[in-house]
Amino acid sequence: MNCPSLSVAMSIYNGERFLAAAIESVLAQSFGDFEFLILDDGSTDATPRIVREFAARDSRIRPIIRENRGLVASLNELLHDARAPLVARMDADDICEPERFASQVAFLDANPDYGVIGCRSHDIDENDAPYRVSGPEHPDTHEAFIAAIKARHPLLCHPAVMYRRELVLSMGGYHAAFRHCEDLDLWLRLASVTKLASLPQRLIRYRHYADQVSQRHVTEQQTGAAIALLAWKEREAGRPDPTADLERLPPIDELDELFGREGISRAVRARVAPDLLYSPTGLRDEGFDLILRHLREGGAREGMWRTVVRLLRLGEPRRALRLAATLAAH
């Protein structure tokens, strides 16, 4: 078989709802010299059937149907199985614009000093209607990318990226310790060896809905992101990265010991707590206790009384009472 110019990597778990549209958008790309690796990670819905049906119709699709191993293991498997020098990520609930691959391949061909190129997005909801998102755009130069790290702004839209396969493999691929924020950790590690940015064109329609991973695992995701940024600062300061060989991140209370100095655990809670105040999931899971601990440590109180009202509206009167009592006592 001839080696394609591009490998498209998609991992799916129970993604039947939006899968057909996502696959069709890849097959409709103006740039056609690709193989399409679709890995079904042990789905229990109609996902395997849909994947097989598309594979029977288009020889570029390489289906991988197996038991569940989790997203990080699946992404690394796709990375190792890819045959092309470039890999384009894609998720089962998003939609590529027809010129996405052509634009990103052209950029990487013209800019060998860049190892990763993303693109900006049209944000949509579960019904394909526009979804309003506030905040900065994804940075379109490497210099803006580094500035975005320091400003805590968005870096890259993971399902919109294309990267150089050997470069990512040389950095160890995705790290299992950073489950649910494995992409952020990878971008921060790559930033020390290559340039990263996003095209200013909106070449993907990125979907927002209640059941997506970022909504279901918000506390773990935000905690991991805070630790990944601390690890980046350690590397930038010329110190060893204490997370480099971890299979799983330790509890927050053990971070002082991991990083070898006091104040790390408290700093992580202070960073994560404000990001959980508007998350129904975060307010209902272990994120709530993180917020209380943050307040008891003298952390910022901005928005906390409004969160008491929010908890009442969420049908959580006991948690609303506990938060109000903590605010009154501290």
Write the layout of secondary structure elements.
Elements lengths: L5 E7 L6 H9 L6 E8 L5 H11 L3 E6 L4 H11 L4 E4 L5 E2 L3 H11 L3 E11 L17 H10 L10 E3 H6 L11 H9 L4 E13 L5 H4 L1 H19 L18 H5 L4 H13 L3 H5 L2 H10 L7 H10 L3 H13 L1
Parallel strand pairs: 1-2, 1-4, 2-3, 6-8
Antiparallel strand pairs: 4-7, 5-8, 6-7
Mean pLDDT: 96
Arrangement of strands in the largest sheet: 3-2-1-4-7-6-8-5
Structural class designation = alpha/beta
CATH superfamily of the largest domain: Spore Coat Polysaccharide Biosynthesis Protein SpsA, Chain A
Shape: globular
State the CATH topology of the largest domain: Spore Coat Polysaccharide Biosynthesis Protein SpsA, Chain A
Overall CATH architecture of the largest domain: Alpha-Beta Complex
CATH domain class name of the largest domain: Alpha Beta
Q: Assess the beta-strand content as a share of residues.
A: 15-25%
Radius of gyration: 21 Å
Counting H and I runs of at least 4 residues, what is the number of helices?
15
Oligomer classification: single chain
Tally of extended strands? 8
Q: What is the percent of helical residues?
A: 40-55%
Q: Whole-Å distance between the termini?
A: 67 Å
Low-confidence stretches: none
* Largest sheet data: 8 strands, mixed
List the secondary-structure elements in sequence, H or E. EHEHEHEEHEHEHHEHHHHHHHH
Q: Could you say how many structural domains there are in total?
A: 2
